[in-house]
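REQUEST ID: PR-0412
SUBMITTED BY: lab tech R.K.
PRIORITY: routine
TASK: structure prediction, single protein chain
INPUT:
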Amino acid sequence: MTTSETSRFVRLRVELVLEIEESEALTGAALERIAADEFMPDEERTHAESAVREDEAEALAYLIDPFDLVAEVPGVELAQASWSSEPVDYDPEAQEWDLDDDLDDMRDEGDEDDEDADEGR
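STATUS: complete
OUTPUT:
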């Protein structure tokens, strides 16, 4: 497949597990970000502040922005992004948290897509 036949779009999947060591610092930073957003309507701001105070995962969602991850990457423009955060029970020794397995699964999925494309010719 030549460069002209490939898509110009790339899906980048990133999964992070973060340990919150200072809940107050995290919540405070999220509240500061919300307060500084001059375009946020008052009703939404009240809801956001409440959510951030009740849930550290919500606080993270207000501080982590996919645009920030790629803003300085030359030659790319963010076309679409979505993200979420949720509390999880994390055990680094558990098989379910082996990120290498996830990478292998994604590579296998890519191989299957290549095989499907070959069969379609």
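NOTES: The chain has a mean pLDDT of 84.
REVIEWED BY: pending
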